[in-house]
């Protein structure tokens, strides 16, 4: 298998495993098994966050680096069983019901899994006067039709389906010869696949990163709490790998990466972000610096949990996030390349201690770079005095 | 017995406030202000430590061991960053922190790009009455309705990119401070540089007379309050009390004032610790510091980030009342001196749960 084929295969495997936030045990097991095959040591937290560890080559060059990506996806949950035998659902993660319409799903009851389709509550296109074109978009207007002979709530319950059962969406993944990869839940399984293949390459080629290196695979990013608990105090830099919907501007083709300078939780670390941008620039890896104002990431969760780490987000190109997603294999390969560069380069600050001295503390403004301002407006009283 | 308030060096307070207002420090771009504060602490001989990303913790030791208290104030301010480079060569903005673009209009700014520092001004998209007549009045308010006109010859996105400007570059607003003989101070970014100046002045007052705090005291100068995570990482386990110093909105329907200390009983995150708030009010009464209490409905501060990060502390918030917060801010030096005086009293009074000093 070529590296590209292996990347695609890992991604397709991940996409086959249902993993809405809160229902991620199987995807954790898959990643753990792949890490074992590669030969990387890892820990698993109580709730299933994986922490893989590659020891650094130099014993004394500063604290550790971490790369984090989330393996959970959006999904849904049974919220109400209707007298008709249809089911109302609540979203898991933040996404529009518009993109749920028509999705094929699996419902995981305590008894077994069932198949079904999410439909607008008025779903008969042939009787237009029923309101197909006027029913609003919203989770209140979506019903789950399970593929069972049921016409009553009792019949649904008799099959073991209950409020709170998890619903996973089929990804309907498709990879094309021209490099496009289409499917649901590419956010962030494409990122997980790229990170896993990056780890594989490091191990196969026996590359030792300069510092202790951790790869975190989190399971609750989509609901906002991913990296809170799994960070070690030794970690000074945390780079989040995620899916970023492209602004389809001319300068953002499909293979580009995004180095995010800020998201909904504010700016990322200035110095780490510059460091990553410099690494990309030096290697001619195409990227854009961008703001992701509607984006939430594991980095923000780490800061909210009280970790004093530098954070950055490195994202691969995507379209239509949390919807009918699409990415491009070249973007994922560029991600692997830049990630490889990041983990094998010296860190942003070699001696980045949790407590520093003001002498060693960084600067952001070179005082010589400030343009002189000629705004020497005289005091009005002084000017008038000369006239009076 | 409540200790008397110490005398505050108002010339020092004024100087450090004006210095700090001159230093750009939108959240995420606070390194230089951190350098300034550390130098100011060194000059008044207060020991401090500095976290990796730049949170400053000044420390005043009490006579003995025991639980400690934290006084927290933030150095970062609102600002913006470059969200887009428009086809006319001007810059679209994304706010840093939560504030209305209405108050950005007309603001003079410095754009920090990788290769060059540029000056400019924020304008509404329709910025000339001669050209657009009444359409100017119809243009809605919003961050997508303003742009930065940079003072550099450019009329295309490509030219602006050639100057080195990129998405994500920080944009700092001029503070434009004016110190009126009446005692009013008008400026952007009084939130929270005025608070930081009051805190530094209080520390200097204690140093000047050799006053010791009653419990071990950490004074935090945090750097990410405007985005909600300032004090999360910086508390030790032995912290019993957490007092925030921040801006208090003066507006119709609010009880905050531009004079005296404004105690905040509750903000968006919920009520502050009632016992500590009551204690602070009692300290104000005993030390004859004018004060009022208010409730802020649309407001977060670092006290909240400490609680969210899981610290079990009794917390309270005291404010300098300011008109038009996150806009064209104005406060009065009396409120800053009152806050500083209260800090000198609070630091020298016993913890809620401990014996008198």
Short description:
The complex is a heterodimer of chains A (388) and B (357). Chain A is of the alpha+beta class and 388 residues long. Helix content of chain A is 25%, strand content 27%.
Oligomer: heterodimer
Based on helices, strands and strand pairing, what is the structural class of chain A?
A: alpha+beta
Show unreliable segments of chain B: none
N-to-C series of helices and strands of chain B: HHEEEEEEEHHEHEEEHEEEEHEHEEH
What are the defining features of this structure?
heterodimer, A: 388 residues, alpha+beta, twelve-stranded mixed sheet, six-stranded antiparallel sheet, 8 helices, 19 strands, 27% strand, B: 357 residues, nine-stranded mixed sheet, 27% helix, elongated
Question: What's the structural blueprint in terms of helices and strands?
Answer:
The complex is a heterodimer of chains A (388) and B (357).
Chain A: H1 3-16, H2 25-38, E1 41-44, E2 50-54, E3 64-70, E4 75-81, E5 87-92, E6 104-108, E7 113-120, E8 142-146, H3 153-158, E9 166-169, E10 174-175, E11 180-182, H4 186-204, E12 213-218, E13 235-245, E14 257-263, E15 266-267, H5 270-282, E16 287-292, H6 298-304, E17 310-319, E18 326-328, H7 329-344, E19 355-356, H8 380-387
Parallel strand pairs in A: 3-12, 3-13, 13-17, 14-16
Antiparallel strand pairs in A: 1-2, 2-12, 4-5, 4-9, 6-7, 6-9, 7-8, 10-11, 11-18, 14-15, 14-17, 17-18
Helix pairs in contact in A: 1-4, 2-4, 4-7
Chain B: H1 10-22, H2 31-43, E1 48-51, E2 56-60, E3 68-74, E4 79-85, E5 91-96, E6 108-112, E7 117-124, H3 129-132, H4 135-138, E8 146-150, H5 157-162, E9 170-173, E10 178-179, E11 184-186, H6 190-209, E12 216-222, E13 239-250, E14 261-267, E15 270-271, H7 274-286, E16 291-295, H8 302-308, E17 314-323, E18 330-332, H9 333-347
Parallel strand pairs in B: 3-12, 3-13, 13-17, 14-16
Antiparallel strand pairs in B: 1-2, 2-12, 4-5, 4-9, 6-7, 6-9, 7-8, 10-11, 11-18, 14-15, 14-17
């Amino acid at each position: 298998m070529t590296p590209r084929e292996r990347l695609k295969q890992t991604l397709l495997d991940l996409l086959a495993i249902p993993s809405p936030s809160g229902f991620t045990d199987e995807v954790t097991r898959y990643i753990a098994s792949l890490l074992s095959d590669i030969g990387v040591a890892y820990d698993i937290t109580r709730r299933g966050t994986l922490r893989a560890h590659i020891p650094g080559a130099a014993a004394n060059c500063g604290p550790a680096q971490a790369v984090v990506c989330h393996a959970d996806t959006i999904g849904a949950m049974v919220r109400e069983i209707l007298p008709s035998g249809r089911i109302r659902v609540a979203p898991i993660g933040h996404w529009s019901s518009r993109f749920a319409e028509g999705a094929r799903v699996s419902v995981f009851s305590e008894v077994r899994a069932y198949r079904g389709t999410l439909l607008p509550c008025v779903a008969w296109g042939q009787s237009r006067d029923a309101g197909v074109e006027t029913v609003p978009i919203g989770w209140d207007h979506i019903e789950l039709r399970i593929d069972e002979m049921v016409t009553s709530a009792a019949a649904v319950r008799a099959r073991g389906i209950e409020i709170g059962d998890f619903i996973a969406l089929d990804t309907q993944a498709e990879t094309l010869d021209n490099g496009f990869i289409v499917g649901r839940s590419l956010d962030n399984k494409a990122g997980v696949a790229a990170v896993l293949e990056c780890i594989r390459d490091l191990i196969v080629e026996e590359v030792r990163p300069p510092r202790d290196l951790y790869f975190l695979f989190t399971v609750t990013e989509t609901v906002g709490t991913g990296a809170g608990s799994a960070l070690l105090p030794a970690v000074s830099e945390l780079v989040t790998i995620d899916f970023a919907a492209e602004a389809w501007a001319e300068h953002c083709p499909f293979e580009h990466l995004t180095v995010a300078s800020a998201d909904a939780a504010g700016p990322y670390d200035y110095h780490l972000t510059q460091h990553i941008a410099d690494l990309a620039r030096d290697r001619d890896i195409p990227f854009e610096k961008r703001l992701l104002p509607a984006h939430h990431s594991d980095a923000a969760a780490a800061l909210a949990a009280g970790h004093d780490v530098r954070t950055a987000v490195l994202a691969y190109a995507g379209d239509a996030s949390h919807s009918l997603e699409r990415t491009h294999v070249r973007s994922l390969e560029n991600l692997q390349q830049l990630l490889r560069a990041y983990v094998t380069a010296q860190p942003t600050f070699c001696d980045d201690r949790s407590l520093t001295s003001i002498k060693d503390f960084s600067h952001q403004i070179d005082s010589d770079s400030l343009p002189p301002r000629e705004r020497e407006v005289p005091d009005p009283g002084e000017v008038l005095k000369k006239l009076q | 017995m409540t200790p008397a308030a110490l005398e505050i060096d108002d010339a020092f307070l004024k100087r450090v406030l004006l210095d700090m207002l001159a230093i750009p420090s939108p959240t995420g771009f606070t390194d230089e202000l951190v350098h300034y504060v550390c130098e100011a602490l060194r000059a008044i001989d207060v020991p401090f430590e500095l976290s990796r990303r730049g949170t400053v913790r000044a420390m005043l030791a009490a006579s003995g061991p025991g639980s400690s208290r934290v006084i927290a104030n933030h150095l970062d301010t609102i600002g913006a960053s470059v969200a887009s480079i428009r086809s006319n060569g001007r810059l679209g903005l994304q706010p840093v922190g939560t504030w209305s673009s209405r108050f950005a209009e007309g603001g003079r700014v410095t754009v920090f790009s990788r290769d060059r520092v540029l000056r400019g001004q924020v304008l509404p998209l329709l910025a000339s009455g001669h050209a657009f007549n009444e359409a100017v009045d119809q243009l809605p308010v919003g961050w997508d309705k303003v742009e930065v006109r940079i003072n550099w010859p450019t009329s295309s996105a490509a030219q602006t990119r050639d100057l080195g400007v990129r998405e994500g570059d920080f944009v700092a607003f001029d503070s434009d401070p004016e110190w009126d003989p009446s005692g009013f101070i008008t400026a952007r970014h009084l939130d929270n540089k005025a608070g930081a100046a009051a805190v530094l002045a209080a520390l200097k007052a204690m140093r000047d007379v050799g006053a010791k705090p009653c419990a071990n005291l950490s004074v935090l100068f945090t750097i990410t309050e405007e985005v909600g995570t300032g004090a999360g990482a910086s508390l030790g386990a032995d912290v019993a009390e957490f007092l925030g110093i921040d801006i208090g909105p003066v507006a119709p329907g609010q009880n905050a004032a531009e004079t005296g200390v404004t105690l905040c009983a509750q903000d968006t995150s919920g009520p502050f610790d009632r016992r500590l708030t009551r204690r602070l009010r009692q300290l104000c009464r005993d030390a004859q510091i004018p004060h009022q209490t208010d409730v802020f409905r649309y407001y977060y501060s670092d006290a909240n980030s400490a609680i969210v990060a899981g610290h079990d502390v009794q917390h309270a918030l005291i404010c300098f009342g300011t008109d038009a917060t996150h806009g064209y801010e104005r406060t009065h030096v009396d409120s800053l001196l009152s806050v500083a005086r209260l800090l000198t009293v609070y630091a020298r009074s016993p913890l809620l749960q401990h014996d008198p000093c």
